[in-house]
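Consider the following input, taken from an annotated entry for GNAT family N-acetyltransferase (Marixanthomonas spongiae).
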Amino acid sequence: MTTLKGENIYLRALEQADLDFLYLLENDEKGWEVSNTTTPYSKHLLQQYLDQAHRDIYDVKQLRLVICTNNNETAIGFIDLYDFDPKHSRAGVGIVIFSEANKGKGYASEALRLVIRYAVQHLNIHQLYANITEDNQQSIRLFEKAGFVKNGIKKDWIKVGNTYKNELFYQLIPHVH
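Applying the prediction step yields:
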């Protein structure tokens, strides 16, 4: 079994055909809160990003993988390793499943397990972390189920409109061999 293939999903690199999918995701204002985005992305800018997507994680310090279902190879989301720090052997993890129809089916849990295994086996990761807003109960359950532990609260960290949200800091020191 490869590290990026699971029972129901597999993770693959970004491809040129993902442009429209990426465009919809990056321009969905509901996701801007967690991605620190404040303006839409043009297809031209996203095309430039795709053109550079082949670059090594050691160079660009991030890796975005597409989550696809095994049965029909449909792209259903992304999982990212970001702020990769090889000196300290750590990286952040972010995940998004696009449609409500694909949520609650275990795809995110499986993708998270696969990316943890990949990060440990191929990137020699010692720890992974996630930043999750306090009101995102679905993500909190997902990461806690995967073994992440809440180790801090960033008070009033995320501004949404005229209010602020606390952001929780979760860490995992995996013991995958």
